[in-house]
Amino acid sequence: MGLRGVGTLYLLYKFIQDKKGLNREKYINELWIYATTFRYERKYSEINKNEAKEHFNWFKKQIPPRLEQLGAFSQIHLDYNHRSLIDIWEWHLRNVQIQNKSTSDLEQEYSRTSKWMKAFINGKKVNTQSQAFTLDIAIYLGEVVKSNHSGLDWGVIFKPKSYVSVNRPVIIGFRKKEMDVIRIVSNKMYAILKGQRNPNALFDILSYVGRVYLKLLIGRDYDLEPNLSGKIV
Which of 31, 58, 153, 224 has fewest C-beta within 10 Å? Predict the structure, then answer.
């Protein structure tokens, strides 16, 4: 299914949401990951403005039900305060499921990865459910950030095409950079695959954003850019 059929993909996601059955959660999580990240499809930089708008509008509508499911499944009170970021990340660290990638998975990843990035390919991965919860937690981080700082909100940047977060749902309202919470939290998962487990990881990010926000109010410049290690520098 190409992105020209992305509307059909969203309808399929809704259809499965409304059904009950043994494999319902598995299929919902797979479609959630697929529809949110365009996995194995064209890159974000390759979609046009209308497709990016369609995806963004769909994404925004999914936030309330996905966070409701996250709270119900984790039994963590998601009240948008600082402590809840520690609680939900600790829960994720306790429950994340890590597995080895198959030979075919690795071959496919090597084939579509640029030469300079091949060294960063990891032989392990988190399972589908853990990937889905990673996306949900990234969205929750975004909601906490915007709830605690007026003037920040979800948005999408359409150009330049070379921008690393082009056409992706990001937190906007900063002066020079947007905050790509999905990319940032995904990078935190790469750290977990390497054996690094910091229960304060999301809290530290929010604390940093608070300092950046203060600089924004008093007119000082700053940088907000996730790097390959998952840190914000």
Answer: 153
